[in-house]
Write a structure and sequence with these properties.
Layout: H1 2-15, E1 23-27, E2 39-45, E3 63-69, E4 72-78, H2 83-86, H3 93-102, E5 106-115, E6 125-133, H4 158-170, E7 175-182, H5 191-200, E8 204-206, H6 210-218, E9 222-232, H7 243-266
Parallel strand pairs: 1-4, 1-5, 5-9, 6-7, 7-8
Antiparallel strand pairs: 2-3, 3-4, 5-8, 6-9
Helix pairs in contact: 1-3, 4-7
């Protein structure tokens, strides 16, 4: 693992033209178009980088882009691997440790999620304030040393969240806040599971993100996460759920996410 990260860092720096990214961004399902926002310096397919996952889900191109957004140097991961693809939740370990080694001190995560709140319908955007790891799985299984016991209090950076809320208020954007619960997928949840999630305190459910938050905190990065709401949870609406529908509806939230991230990342240039 350490060797793969070192190899990736060497390959990336060799083509980065001196750019040192400060912010890492992971684009989830339906958000791949945000890659157009970056002023590109270098691009890599995941299959060029040792230990990076193969892209296996529609809406996840599998590219690492280096460049700038509003002058802020960034590294953007267009696509993630999910626990349900191979039964392992550490698939993003090398990519995220590579970002941290390159210089990223903040990680921005995006995902598509199902809402458990009637006031937060499809097309809404939710700022993740905390999460529930319903799977019981960890990408740190097998790690050694005391640093594997990661403190998850304040896992989502409060100062960054406040900045995003202020940007949203200034721009007249309704930005919800809530707790994200991770189900492993790939099947969607049952109505009973959705009721259980709501009783546990969740506001939205999804099949990603939580392993990346754990890895980022283990690497010392601050974390920000935004969920694009694509549907109501099972039993809350009449529309059938499918990945195709998730891809289609996620585009309703993508413009809002683009506006929020552009201003948020640009503001980090001199921070």
């Amino acid at each position: 693992m350490t060797t793969a990260v070192a190899q990736c860092v060497g390959l990336i720096r060799g083509r980065a033209r001196g750019l040192t990214p400060r912010v890492g961004i992971v684009l989830g399902t339906g958000f791949s178009d945000y890659a157009d926002a970056i002023d590109k310096v270098a691009a890599f397919s995941y299959d060029e980088l040792p230990g990076f996952p193969a892209a296996g889900v529609a809406g996840h191109p599998g590219q690492l882009l280096l460049g700038r957004i509003g002058g802020t140097p960034v590294a953007l991961l267009a696509g993630r691997v999910h626990y349900y693809e191979h039964g392992r939740c550490d698939g993003m370990k090398v990519p995220l440790r590579t970002l941290a080694r390159l210089g990223c001190d903040t990680l921005i995560l995006t995902n598509s999620a199902g809402s458990l709140r009637l006031d937060m319908g499809p097309g809404s955007v939710m700022l993740v304030s905390d999460h529930i790891n319903f799977t019981g799985q960890s990408p740190l299984f097998g790690e050694t040393g005391n640093d594997r016991f990661v403190d998850m209090v304040g896992a989502y950076d409060a100062a960054s969240a406040q900045r995003l809320m202020e940007i949203a208020a200034t721009r007249g954007i309704r930005l919800h806040r809530g707790v994200y619960l991770w189900f492993c997928g790939p099947s969607f949840e049952t109505p009973a599971e959705i009721r259980a999630a709501a009783m546990l305190g969740a506001d939205a459910v999804g099949m990603s993100t939580v392993p990346e938050v754990i890895l980022a905190r283990h690497a010392g990065m601050k974390v920000v996460a935004l969920s694009g709401i694509t549907n109501f949870g099972a039993g809350m609406g009449s529309e059938p759920m499918s990945h195709e529908a998730t891809l289609s509806v996620s585009r309703l939230a993508s413009d809002v996410v683009r506006r929020l991230l552009n201003e948020f990342v640009t503001g980090m240039k001199n921070a």
